[in-house]
Amino acid sequence: MAADGVAGAVIVLIEGGAPVWTGAFGMADPAAGRPMAADALFRVESLSKPVTAWAAMRLAEAGQLDLDAPVDACLTRWTLPAGAGGITARMLLSHGAGIGLGDFSARYDPGGPRLGLPEYIAQDFSLIAAPGAVFSYSDTGYNLLELLIEDCREEDFAGLVAREVLAPLGMTGASFDWTGASMPVGHDLHGRPVAPYVYPGRASGGLHATAADIARFAAAGMAGADQPVLSAEGVASLHRPEVAVDGLFGFAADGYGLGHFTETLSDGRAAVWHGGQGYGWMSHMHLVPETGDGIVILSNSQRAWPLFAAILRDWSQTIGVAPVGMARVLVAEAVARVGIVLGPIIGALGVWMAFRPGRRPRIARVTAGGIAAALILWPLWAAVQDYLFLFSILPGLWRWLGIASGLAGFGLVLTAVTAERRS
Q: Are 318 and 345 contained in the same domain?
């Protein structure tokens, strides 16, 4: 936590299908000297998605939502654009609807004005692939699912989920509504405090919950769990892969079910998980339904991914498997550290080559110049971006990596522009 500037965290271990240990670390509010508490209320960000999936499956098992019917058959407050007519709730749940990620930076003051959900979806919706074709992680898709549930049931989403899922599972501190309850102070990628906010939609990332709430939810998803919300087959169908996952998500997951990433562990057991990242907050839940092993990690810092990866690596060892996919963030850290060491060395070699007598073919100098431009320009470009994936996986290293890259580029520039020297 100290190495990466993480403010605070709460961790719950689950064994045999039940929480067995909870630990609170760091500070809920460093500026005020308030320590983190085990019962602290967090924004759990995209951990909202598996809870939303449970609500959708609850309605499906009750015959109140058809997961395989076109969603436009039930929508009343917004109409899908041309080309999107075949989208179903199942596609939305599995991120297989071909909808773009959406504007994850859209936030509102909890007490201020904001766009209604239909109006927000109308401006945020974009189709980037044919429905049902490929995995495309989408906050907008889950917000559309929220609208679908509300229109089909003619009921507010937060109230419905509270009655059908949260209360029956004993998640007494959890809510999809903003309540104004006391929370830790979130901290962004620079370690600065974050003011309270709400999203335009709730299904994709609007849940507030304690670590104990999420642990109860995780325990309900274990094989043989005694829970009153879903049938065993309903839970299994949430955990069953629907689409293969590729791209950046493919480094940590094999597939995506309904509201859950899926992964095959090194011993052949199936695991499901989900994480969440928002402005100032991070969360993670990993469970092995077959054996009842699980872990929940919540943090009030957006710099916590390397911390999560280290904890998940060690947790993997305790359950007898190779590190789970999310632990690969630590590989990125190791590669970055090598790059930080190599950058100055390459720069020094470039300076040495520039002033070393001998012939340098023009093609070699042109190539060196092109590489140098890339090495110098990418850190400058990154520095003016609001957010890059790199910032999250290397919160304490990416600037040093950028400096090292610039030094390497400087040396190569000298090699490229220095004329041939003779002894």
A: no
User: Domain for residue 171, yes or no?
Assistant: yes
**221-259 in b/e burial notation, b at 16+ Cβ within 10 A?**
bbeebebebbeeeebebbbbbbbebeeebeebbbbbbbb
Task: Count CB neighbours of 292 within 10 A.
Answer: 19
Q: Is residue 56 part of a domain?
A: yes
- Which tens digit of pLDDT belongs to each residue from 83-126? 888 999 999 999 999 999 999 889 999 988 888 999 999 999 99
Q: Bridge-partner residues for 27, per DSSP?
A: 35
Domain edge (last residue) among 323, 353, 387:
323
- CATH number of the domain that 132 lies in? 3.40.710.10
Length of the chain equals 423
pLDDT tens digit sequence for 317-354: 999 999 999 999 999 999 999 999 999 999 999 888 88
Q: What is the pTM of this model?
A: 0.93
Query: 371 and 295: one domain?
Result: no
Looking at the structure of the chain, the number of domains it has is 2
DSSP-assigned states of every residue in 242-304: -EE--GGGGGT-SEE-SSSEEEE-TTS-EEEEEEEEETTEEEEEEEETTTTEEEEEEESBTT-
